[in-house]
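Limitations

Structures in this collection are predictions, not experimental determinations, and the ligand pose is part of the prediction. Treat each record accordingly. The example that follows, with fe (ii) ion as the small molecule, is included so readers can see exactly what is and is not provided: the inputs are given verbatim, and the output is the predicted complex.
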Amino acid sequence: MPKLEIEQFACLSDNYAVLIHDPEAGVTASIDAPDGKAILARLKAKGWTLTHLLITHHHGDHTGGNLQLKQETGCSIIGPKAEADRIPGIDREVAEGDVVAFGNFEIKVLETPGHTLGHVSYFIPAAKVAFVGDTLFALGAGRIFEGNAEMMWKSLQKIMRLPMDTEIYCGHEYTEANAKFALTLEPNNQALVNRAQDVDRLRRENKPTLPTRLDRELETNPFLRPNVTAIRAKLGMLYAPDWHVFAAIRERKNKS
Ligand SMILES: [Fe+2]
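Predicted complex:
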């Protein structure tokens, strides 16, 4: 089984940059381009040459480094077809079901709209790793800027159907605030209580709380748990459809 090396590091105020590298094939991809300069520095430190840039959505804190990276490395920029006109330097437009060849690996494109209308996530089955941009966060979910709650819920469900042990990389470090909010909905979820303590400790030590894993999110992330009776009871929505409960959780978090 080929090996995939993954390098995650913080940049800008709370973004994560992630580099993936197939040492056998000598290819390297960056997931999004929050900070071109920081990404170039890390590539240099690792001795890796950027060949691919995989963009999840058009927001400036995910595409700001596109042109600099392309100019300096000649990398190929891959991004969502639905928002191609807003992704600087895009070379290849991708949509649901498309596969991007990356050395010994195949990268599958999942359309995950809601945060933006064209947002995509990237899943590498052979490495059991997914890059979900601003759709899912550790203990949270992305804000719904362009889509609606039903659309976002469907996108999250797509991620929820990946293998349980999928490692999930997200666009931002928001976990501490998300944990506080999650505890207001499920104070008696022991897995959540334990995780919130782990998150506090990691952040005190200035360590990342990401990547996360799908099974851990399913146990503790309220945005993936609208079917849970305790959450429904808290919101007074015992018999509502899941996506209505999800929408109410999103609303409540927006106001928190
Ligand atoms: Fe965003």
